[in-house]
Amino acid sequence: MLDDRKLAVLRAIVEDYVSTNEPVGSRALAERHNLKVSPATVRNDMAALEEEGYITQPHTSAGRVPTDKGYRLFVDRLSQVKPLSGAERRAIETFLAGAVDLDDVVTRTVRLLAQLTRQVAVVQYPTLTRSTVRHVELVPLHDRRVMLVLITNTGRVEQRVVELPEVVEDTRIAHLRAVLNASLDGCGLLNVPDQVADLPERLPVEDRPVVATILSVLLETLVERHDEKIVFAGAANLAGADFSTGLRDVLEALEEQVVLMRLLGETSTDTPSTLTVRIGSENPFLRGTSIVATGYGSGDNELARLGVLGPTRMDYPVTMGAVRAVARYVSQILAAS
Amino acid sequence: MLDDRKLAVLRAIVEDYVSTNEPVGSRALAERHNLKVSPATVRNDMAALEEEGYITQPHTSAGRVPTDKGYRLFVDRLSQVKPLSGAERRAIETFLAGAVDLDDVVTRTVRLLAQLTRQVAVVQYPTLTRSTVRHVELVPLHDRRVMLVLITNTGRVEQRVVELPEVVEDTRIAHLRAVLNASLDGCGLLNVPDQVADLPERLPVEDRPVVATILSVLLETLVERHDEKIVFAGAANLAGADFSTGLRDVLEALEEQVVLMRLLGETSTDTPSTLTVRIGSENPFLRGTSIVATGYGSGDNELARLGVLGPTRMDYPVTMGAVRAVARYVSQILAAS
DNA sequence: ACTTGGCACTCGGGAACACAGAGTGCTAGA
DNA sequence: TCTAGCACTCTGTGTTCCCGAGTGCCAAGT
Asked: Does residue A60 approach strand D to less than 7 Å at its CB?
């Protein structure tokens, strides 16, 4: 039903359309790509492809344009991810290597990706749930206030001010800090609630109210930050492109954490290094856009996701190459620190 | 030269043009605002106003449109800041009151302002330079690594990993922490360099390399964060508006910290509660946009600035009211914490 | 001296129209 | 199964025309 030549025609259509942004006709196609057949033959193939729903024409007697289904086939079977050039690789490496802390890594990553792909880049902060406690710190502020600082193995720091139910002098604070760390050090964040559940009971009765207060704030912190922060960059790249769904909707989605989250693909796949490509109407919202995303993280476990968002008409091989490469490098950086 | 009626005409032109986005002609003007004169008279006044450069016509025989100079006069002399409604005030108050930490305050503020003005809101993080050290914390990570955490009186937290030149056991770390805090507690961030300059000399010789390393990272942190972080929200509001300078440039500026900084007004004025309005070509870059900004901060000293950015054709009285109100509320919140 | 009504003039924008060019579908022949 | 040819159908563009909104100016009125 779809012989090799038809597939070649589809590939050619996608490539030409992506590069020219104009419906592509049979003559131009037969010339530019050296299919060794006449325009008429190409037309027949096009008719078949249109019949199957892979391409469409904006109006009678214009050239053909790929449909979402056409792009899908192209991505799945007709293209291969295009690796970056050596220069690009080196640029990535040196740029990311300069990061001083987790915030900086994320900021640099998202900018890098935006610049590399000339699209909007989106990066999710490494998830707390997969990381472990490296240290818990209690810093006395006033007599009834302490600052709770939680440091994870990914370098992430969360802090909260805790209002204590009674005055607690510094030495007691230090003691409690030791107790907390003894209990939580190295503990996976998901296990923290279980780990601390019976902690008050194991302490002298006079410490219980204070510890309970601190723990409730700690748990609250974990819950609140569960749905992770997402940052984006490169919104300026939207200016040129045209979206069926209107620029406004795209910009709104970018500022809406929840929407972005779902677009990136909330379900972390079991094979983190796989590239996810969602094309046009395959997206839950924002039907006019495509998303290329993948997981990243130190080692095997996927800490979070990153990707780019752009018009359906994008250069998928190049974009996929950039996303994959950046994800690898940032994973390396995170593993090293 | 500019009598009262001419000023009234200018005001009417600005108001009509802002609300309709169409050049306003003499007839419509004479009708809608009850100037009790004929269109012909209005035309004469318009000719005078145009002569003086306050208004202009897009092409011969179209209505008039205010120039930057016209808006300037309007803002300075013809309008008064429009206060918010009671409902809006309450909404602001409750929304900001829910913030849990400084990050949250800033995020909420910028979103609130964007929603309120239907423009792009811009908020600068409270400057380190005006705040003071509340606590310095050293957290051992490995034997040769500690995390340096700096907490300021505005609730801001900066952290850095420090690579020490030698192995340092925890008790020594605790000692150094005490020394640092004794020296720096309550110290203004600007004075930190002076304060610690001779610190190594006052310590036993064996501590000096370690302390020197820590201090260099500390100072580095202060310097690096000197030019402060700026966040924005409401980019979606740009979608409808048209900018002479192209949407792309505006979006690029928004992601460029340095540019945003200068737009907000790098020189903090001596009277922080003053609203700064920069109209069109008065802006260093982005000549097509206007900016309404003001300082905010706890008490008298201006900690940072916030404002909105929009097309030159904006409703200045309303925008100014919103910016002023939000600045006041966020100042209150910061003062209370 | 200012205001007003009248009038001619000037543009911009929309409607109507023609036309060239690109592209298609179809059919007949190799 | 491919190819050549041909008639057909669109879009986009350029042209023309006209209407209406708006102006500038002048002369008359208060």
From this structure: yes
